[in-house]
Design a protein that fits this description.
Blueprint (H helix, E strand, L loop, with lengths): L1 E2 L10 E2 L13 H52 L27 E6 L8 E7 L26 E2 L15 E4 L3
Antiparallel strand pairs: 1-2, 3-4, 3-5, 4-6
């Protein structure tokens, strides 16, 4: 800071001089590219971990829905002494509406009995999960594509249901009555 020369009748006023001071600041292009790359890598890692957590959450919801369907099927069986030929029969008396997964998949139902026209005394209920998790260790691994009658002597009593081989597809979660 310089002080202006004194003149008669004037008050000295300080003045600023920036002649010698140079402000040098900023980032180089390489530094900016490195920072953007690091942010991109961190974003990708975080996104994939959240995506996996969401898939596991959807799988747990599917397993929970399957337990609710099993409860409705057992209630139907206790009242009618047989399982329904179609899972749609459970609506609205046993479940409020037909369940679908958050990914839009239907829960599959395969009723079985000792005759194609006789009472359904067993079933297989299944859905495909998105991730391999510990719940898959409790699956039954039923194969409805084997030649009829099945190994236990039962046949499809509902007529024309989709089959599944839960023993070969590792992500199919299936349940049957105990």
């Amino acid at each position: 800071m310089k002080i202006a020369k004194k003149h008669k009748g004037f008050i000295p006023i300080p003045t600023l001089s920036f002649e010698k001071a140079k402000l040098v600041w900023g980032f180089t292009l390489v530094e900016i590219v490195v920072i953007v790359a690091i942010i991109g890598v961190l974003s990708a890692i975080i996104y994939t971990s959240f995506d996996k957590a969401k898939a596991q959450s959807r799988d747990q919801r599917k397993i929970s829905d399957m337990a609710g369907l099993q409860l409705a099927l057992e209630t139907y069986f206790n009242q009618n002494h047989q399982y329904p030929t179609s899972i749609d029969i459970l609506v609205p008396q046993y479940i409020p509406s037909m369940l679908t997964s958050q990914t839009g998949e239907q829960y599959n139902y395969f009723p079985m009995g000792y005759s194609s026209f006789g009472p359904c005394i067993s079933y297989q209920l299944w859905i495909k999960l998105e991730t391999n998790n510990s719940s898959l260790s409790s699956k039954r691994g039923f194969n409805s594509f084997t030649t009829s009658p099945f190994a236990n002597g039962m046949v499809d009593c509902g007529g024309g249901h989709l089959g599944v081989d839960a023993s070969s597809d590792q992500l199919i979660y299936d349940v049957m009555p105990q």
